[in-house]
Amino acid sequence: METGACYYRGLRGVAHIDEGRPDVRSFDLDWQVTAVPEDVARSGLQRMRARLEREGWTFVDTGVDRPGFRFRNPAGEDGVQQVEHVDARWYRETGTYSVSVYAGCGKLPDGFDEYTWPERDWVPEAVPGAPLTPPAARSATPR
After folding, report:
1. Residue 108 CB burial class (10 angstroms; 0-12, 13-18, ≥19)
2. d(Cα 8, Cα 125) in Å, to the nearest integer?
3. Were 4 and a residue from 17, 26, 28, 65 both cysteine, which residue would form a disulfide, CB within 3.0 to 4.6 Å?
4. How many CB atoms lie within 10 A of CB 71?
5. Could you give the C-alpha distances from 115 to 32, 106, 130, in angstroms and in order?
């Protein structure tokens, strides 16, 4: 996880030119796990996509050469700030399942320290049920 600087706006911005606020940060979380089987990855991607859709996130695009997607949070769109987004991908070559989440400027909770953020061990498991069948491969050449 990384945090970024957020700056004062309006008249306060004039008094604090290029000075980041100490109580507000942006957040970027990149997470990945390797050796994830394809059926497990596709199941996870489907569940994540369904939840984002249920919560009103806006679909942006899918992976052209690998399974995945990008969603953005329409509640953050104001033409000035970067919108929050979620990217999820699965890389067949390495079996890497990767999720990247960005959140624009927000107030830090009391006691927050980005350098002591806990890391957890986690091993994905297949969800019970029928296995997922990937779509058939298609040629990249137009017909």
Report:
1. middle
2. 44
3. 26
4. 22
5. 19, 18, 41
Q: Which pair of structure tokens corresponds to residue 67?
A: 């399974």
7 pairs with which residues across the strands?
A: 20
Cross-strand pairs, 32: 98
Q: Are 62 and 42 in contact (CB under 8 A)?
A: no
Contacts 24+ apart (CB under 8 A), 81-84: 81/105, 82/26
Segment 38-76, tens digit of pLDDT: 999 999 999 999 999 998 999 988 766 678 898 988 775
Secondary structure (3-state) at 58: strand
Side chain identity, residue 130 = A
Q: How many CB atoms lie within 10 A of CB 97?
A: 24
pTM exceeds 0.70: no
78 versus 55: the higher-pLDDT residue is 55
Distance CA 142, CA 126 (A): 36
Mean pLDDT of 131-142: 45
Q: What rounded mean pLDDT belongs to the chain?
A: 76
Averaged over 110-134, what is the pLDDT? 58
